[in-house]
Design a protein that fits this description.
Layout: H1 2-7, H2 31-38, E1 45-53, E2 56-64, E3 70-80, E4 83-91, E5 96-105, E6 108-114, E7 118-126, E8 129-136, E9 142-152, E10 155-164, E11 171-183, E12 186-193, E13 198-206, E14 211-220, E15 226-237, E16 241-248, E17 252-262, E18 265-274, E19 277-288
Parallel strand pairs: 1-19
Antiparallel strand pairs: 1-2, 2-3, 3-4, 4-5, 5-6, 6-7, 7-8, 8-9, 9-10, 10-11, 11-12, 12-13, 13-14, 14-15, 15-16, 16-17, 17-18, 18-19
Length: about 290
C-alpha cells in the first residue's frame, strides 16, 4: 500500500513546497500537510526487502503482529506490451492484489485495481486539468468522479462526487469541493467533507531548508475548530537523520527517526505515548533494503 511504501521513503519531497503549476488529482489537493503528519509513524515491526528476479523487481514485506507471529507479502511490478503491472502482490492470508494501468493515448490512463473489490478507472490530463473516474465493476454498485483545475500558479480548485448505483441508497452519496494555495514557503488547503457539513484545513510551512511545520484542523457547526494534529520535521542533522514529531487532539504524542544506516538501507524508528502515561507507550521499527 501507499502507506507502507511511504513508511520507508524518507525523502525530502515530504518537506518541500513546489508551486502547483502542474496538474494534480483532487485526491492529492491537500497531500503536503497530510504526508508530513501521517507518513513514517508506525507501531509495528517490519522488514522490507527489494531485489531482482530476472528482468523484474521483487519486494518482500514481513511484519510481526502483536502476538509475535510473522506474516509476509510478496510483490512485483513490470511492464509488458504497453500494459503496466503497477502492483502484483500475494499476501499471507491467501488474498491477492492486482493494479494495472494502460495509456491508450496522450494524457489518458486507464487503470484496474483488484483487492477486496475491483475498480476500473480512468485518469485524463489536459493542461492544468485532471479528471478521474472509477467504477466498481465487481458489484456494479458505485461510480466516482473528480476534477481538479490549476487556475493559476500555486492555486488549485476541484471537487468530487460519488453515486450509488444499486440498493436502497441508490443516488448521490457524497459530494465535496476543495482548493489549495502555495506561495513561497507556505502551502494551505481547504476541503469539504460529509456533504459540506465539515471543512478540513491543512497548512504546511517551510521555515528553512531543514525545518517544516504542519497542522491539520477540522471545522463544523458542532465544533468550530478541532486540531487533529500539529507536527514538524527536521533534517538538519545529517549524522542523525530526519526527525519528526507530532501531537494529536487525542493527547497522543508521536515521534520518529528516519535514517539511512547504510547505502540503500533505511531505518525507521517510531514511538508514541498518551499524555504522560508511560504504560501506553508503543514503538515501531522498520527496515527497508
Amino acid at each position: 500500500s501507499h502507506r507502507q511504501r511511504s513508511l520507508f521513503a524518507p525523502t525530502r519531497r515530504l518537506h518541500q513546497i513546489v508551486l502547483a503549476t502542474m496538474a494534480v488529482k483532487y485526491s492529492d489537493i491537500g497531500k503536503s500537510a497530510k504526508d508530513l503528519l501521517n507518513d513514517d509513524y508506525t507501531n509495528s515491526i517490519s522488514l522490507k526487502c527489494k531485489g531482482k528476479a530476472g528482468p523484474v523487481g521483487v519486494t518482500v514485506e514481513t511484519e510481526r503482529s502483536p502476538a509475535g507471529t510473522l506474516s509476509s507479502k510478496v510483490g512485483t511490478k513490470f511492464s509488458y506490451a504497453g500494459l503496466n503491472f503497477d502492483k502484483l502482490q500475494a499476501k499471507a492470508d491467501g488474498s491477492n492484489v492486482l493494479e494495472t494501468s494502460l495509456a491508450p493515448c496522450a494524457g489518458c490512463k486507464v487503470t484496474f485495481k483488484a483487492n477486496k473489490g475491483a475498480d476500473l478507472g480512468v485518469e485524463y490530463t489536459a493542461g492544468s486539468i485532471v479528471t478521474t473516474g472509477a467504477l466498481d465493476v465487481l458489484n456494479m454498485s458505485k461510480l466516482s468522479t473528480s476534477t481538479c483545475i490549476g487556475v493559476a500558479p500555486g492555486i488549485n480548485v476541484g471537487g468530487d462526487l460519488s453515486y450509488n448505483l444499486s440498493g436502497d441508497k441508490a443516488g448521490l452519496s457524497s459530494y465535496n469541493v476543495g482548493a489549495s494555495y502555495a506561495t513561497g514557503p507556505l502551502f494551505a488547503s481547504v476541503t469539504s467533507a460529509s456533504k459540506f457539513s465539515q471543512f478540513n484545513v491543512g497548512v504546511l510551512y517551510k521555515v528553512n531548508k531543514d525545518l517544516s511545520l504542519a497542522s491539520n484542523t477540522t471545522h463544523s457547526s458542532g465544533k468550530a475548530c478541532d486540531v487533529l494534529a500539529i507536527g514538524g520535521a527536521y533534517s538538519g542533522l545529517a549524522a542523525v537523520g530526519t526527525i519528526k514529531a507530532k501531537v494529536g487532539s487525542n493527547g497522543v504524542t508521536s515521534a520518529c527517526l528516519i535514517k539511512e544506516v547504510a547505502p540503500k538501507v533505511n531505518l525507521t524508528a517510531s514511538g508514541s505515548i498518551s499524555g504522560v502515561d508511560f504504560s501506553t507507550f508503543k514503538y515501531g521499527l522498520g527496515i527497508s533494503m
